[in-house]
Amino acid sequence: MRVTINSMLTEFPENQLSVAEILRRKRYSFPNIISRINGTLIRREERENALVREGDDAELYHMMSGG
Questions:
Q1: Which residues on neighbouring strands pair with residue 5, listed in sequence order?
Q2: 3-state class of 9 per DSSP?
Q3: What is the pLDDT of residues 10-24, one digit of tens each?
């Protein structure tokens, strides 16, 4: 499947993947991550069941603070 992740076209051999699996494959380990699929916010507890499919637009961003 082809999906857009953070404005970059990305391909996976599967037809669909959970948000949690994409985070694992991308090695996102920071505890505070914002995830959206096609503009819809996906809560942390929903990531295992929220599926990304062909053509979807996913946003996966580390929340950062600083001073």
A1: 8, 58
A2: strand
A3: 999 999 999 999 999
